[in-house]
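We store chain and fold; thus.
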Amino acid sequence: MEESPPESTSHDELVISGTGAAPGIAMGTAYRYDASAPDRRRAPISPDEVDAEVDRLANAVQRAEQELETVRTLAPDALGADTDAIFEAQALMLRDEEVLRAIRQRIRARKEPAAAAVRTVLAAHRERLDDSDDAHLRTGADDLVELERRLLRALRRRAAAAHIDTQSVVVAQELTPTDLLRVRRQGPLGAVTARGGPTSHAAIVAKALGLPLLVGAGETLEAVSSGDRVVVDGTEGRLIAHPHPATVEDYRQRETEAPSPTEREEERAGRPPRTTDGHAVTLRVNVGLEAELDLLRPDPPGGIGLLRTELFLLADGDPHAVDEERQVEAYREVAEAAGEEGATIRLLDLGGDGRGPRHAAAEHEGSRSLGERGLRRLLNRPDEHLRPQLRALLRANRQGELRVLLPMVTDVTEVRRVRRILDEESARLAENGVPHDPTLPLGAMVEVPAMALQAPAFTEFVDFFSVGTNDLTQYVLAVDRAAGPVGARHDALHPAVLGLILRVVETGRMSGCPVEVCGEIAGDVQAVPVLLGLGVDTLSVSPQSLPTVRRVVRAIEYDAAKGLARDVLQEDDAPAVRRRARTWIDTHLPPAETAGSGGADVRGPDASDR
């Protein structure tokens, strides 16, 4: 049923600027979401609610245990030598039947809500520990504080998500990947956050879910209340509260605008798009969640350029769900969805992108690891994940064209070790008579500046390069790519980052080693002509960004893009590059030819809006 236009109110239309992190348009009512806010209900529950409240407690304990186990498996070792002991202490407390029995008794006997019973029981335990003469026991009081927070958070998260209406737009200070997966079950239309960055893990998951997301809206977002009518434009980067009827009608037209006949013909034929002067550009897709595979059928694009296996395999938060047999089936399904062009499978990036969307450490997206993550972690404990994953890929390779991508590569010796292990596992499968295909191309992600600077040394050992601009930018600029006061400085269009990309592209051209860009910048409209001008011929973007990027490529003159790339490399900073790119796009790309999916002008926000 068509949604009726909003009733006129005394409110003036309010436009709030932010950064579009996941494209699309959402129109509905705002819902203020705060999963971390404590549940302060003290009123007794009814006798009929007791059993449900006890079950709610049990479910919260189970979720808290699952989060702890995921943290212990995926959290970077850089968190500290005592971290594992702390997790173990909390896990033991979660299984302490005396504590749990006392909480259940308060729920049943005193008809207290679960959150109130948790606070009361744990407060009593903390008081006993604080009064103890044993210093070790007094230290345990701190663990009880963290345990209380974890349980209350587990109780609150489900309650917070349960009230979201299917026609709502979630408005929050920040959202983690866990939050997005949780609220998705309620069917919201889109989301807006005051904090966060366009390349955060939450943004990646939002794209995977097809959920329009606006981030970095700032303190102005406080003006939006639950129940307000809003429009979220995740493509152009703005939120409109109390929209006028004319605004709503304009966005409705954008939502219903169909793809052009040329685009439909190109999609059906499976041809790579070409620039106006005939230069072919391969477009692939990034996949993180299983649901995205359905977006690739029945006409897959130029293959899957990046499968984030940790998101794909750990979407349910179970760190043990990466067993070999499950992986074989998952990779076969991915290969089938990717079609003839095949799929690039990134090995588990544990401790980085690969914390997994339900990883408890993702509660604070800014805690990034510079220590043991990605390939470093895999090679330090190869039997744990590396060997099983390589065996699964060798076995699944018989059913489709697969490629292996190594995350967080720093030096050539790491690649050599992986090749040696890959050969060993292939030989082991052959000895045991297990069918497999050993012809598995091996690529390296360019995320660490040291690797980009030494790119020529890698060409002898890898079959292709894939530039991960999200982390490369973070490490080049020393800026956390997630939330935080300096998050806005994280921009892959900084000349220093572009210079490293050019260096890798030139290395690939001289050695015959293909170079792809799979970071979020590949789907940024202002970045597309710059990347093409640098010589990048393959871009891997989210499925939702694919139609827009395809149209932009078709509207670009390749030779002119080369000139743009030369010019922006002379600029001083990312905002200057964006201003020049915006001017170039306004001059070279007619708006009618660059309308994105849903009809929005894909030329993007001005640099000042970012």
Q: What stands out?
A: The domain at 47-161 is CATH 1.10.274.10 (Enzyme I; Chain A, domain 2). The chain has a mean pLDDT of 80.
